[in-house]
C-alpha cells in the first residue's frame, strides 16, 4: 500500500506527512488490525488490536481492508525476484521466503555480501525486509525474526538460539502459551528440560522443531518452481527495452545451450525465458516444442511467436537488466540425415508449424486423437494436444502410434457424440433393427439397417450389472446414415430397453 501511495522508492526519498497506515480484517467476529506500519507502531497501535480502539488512539487513522490474495501475489512476486540469486526459492507462511543459496554465495563475494545485496535492493524497492543466513532453515527463520540480520557460523549454530523465545521454534500459538505456563519461555529452557516429559505433555512437534533448528533433523526446502535442467543467464550493463534486441540475445544464449545439449545428446521440449525488470518485476515466458529442439534459430523463433501474442501484456518499463533462458524439459534427440538438397523432412516442417501455432494461440489450439485401451466407443480415443504427440521418423520407418497401436476393422461414424443421446425407436423384437426413430424432435424412417454389433460394457468401470449394447448402422429415407444402439434386450417381465443415438456417418 505504501508503494502505491508514495512510489516504490519512498523509503529512500522519505515518507510524506501521512496518518498511520493499517490493514483491517475480521478476526474473532470483530474488525481488528491485521497489519500496522512503522508510524502506527510508534503511535501505540499493534496487530490484533480492535479497529474502534485504534481509532480512539489515532482518529486520523488510514485503514484499508486487508486483501490476502493480493498479499499472496505480492509475496510470489518477491519470490520471482529472488530467482536472480538462486532457483531454490520456497514460500514460508504469509510473509517469509526460504532461499537455498548452497553454491550460489560466491557469485556475489560471499554470504555477507549476498545478504547485504538482497536487503539493500529490497529497501530500494520500498520494503523493510529482515534476513539471516545459517546452516538450517529453522535457525535462519528464528534469526530473521528474533535475532536481527546477519549470518550464523557453524560454531555458533547451537549457542545463538538459546536466548530466543520459544516462539522462535515455529510452534502454534496455543503450544507457545502452554509452554510459557510451564515456565519454558526460552529455547534454552527447552534444551535443558528432559525430552520424554516434553513429548508426553506437548507432543513431538516442539522437539522436532528444536532439532531442525539445531541441525539434528533434516528439513528440506520444497522449491515453488521446478529447477531447470540447463540455464543460461546474461546480466546487462544497460537495461534492454527493444523486443528485437531481446530476441537476438535469446538466440545467442541458445547457442550456448546448444553445445551442452549436444554433449548430452538431448534436445529441449520446454523452454522458459525470465526477464528481470529494473523495478523488480519478473516476466516468465514459456514455450514448448513438439519435438526435441536445440537449434538456436528455432528456439528464438518460438519466443518470437510468443512475444507477438504477449505484445500488449509485456510492459518493458525502464527495461530488463537480467535475462535467463531455462530448459525445463529435455529429451533424447536422435541425429537425422537430410537429403542432398539439405531440405528438412516433411515431418520437420509439420512440427515447426505446430510449434508456431501453439506458441501464438496456446497449447489447446491443435488437438490429435489418440487410441486408448478400451473397446467402449466413447473411451476408445482421447483428444490430446498435438504438440505433445508429434514424432519425427526417418523415411521408410513406420510411425509408431501413441497409445495401444491397435486398429479396428469395425466402421465408426465420422462424428461421435460425446454423450449418447436418448431417442424414441420402434423395432422388431427381440433382436430386430429399428424401423423408425425420433431424434431431436425429428422423425426418421429407416430404409436400410446393418447389425447388431454387440459390445459388453467394462465391468471394472461400469459394474457387473451394466447392460450390453447392440449397435446398428441405419440409413433413413433422405440418405443420412446414423449409428444407434439398444441398451438391454426385449425380454418378458423386464424393463423395456432404451435406444440411443451415438454418432453420425454422413
UniProtKB/TrEMBL annotation:
SUPFAM superfamilies reported in the protein's UniProt record: DNA/RNA polymerases
Signal sequence, start to end: none
InterPro entries referenced in this protein's UniProt entry, alphabetically: DNA/RNA_pol_sf, SulA_CellDiv_inhibitor, UmuC
One Pfam family of this chain: IMS
Domain UmuC residues, every copy: 19-142
Entry keyword set: DNA damage
Name by which UniProt lists this protein: Y-family DNA polymerase
Source organism of the structure: Ciceribacter thiooxidans
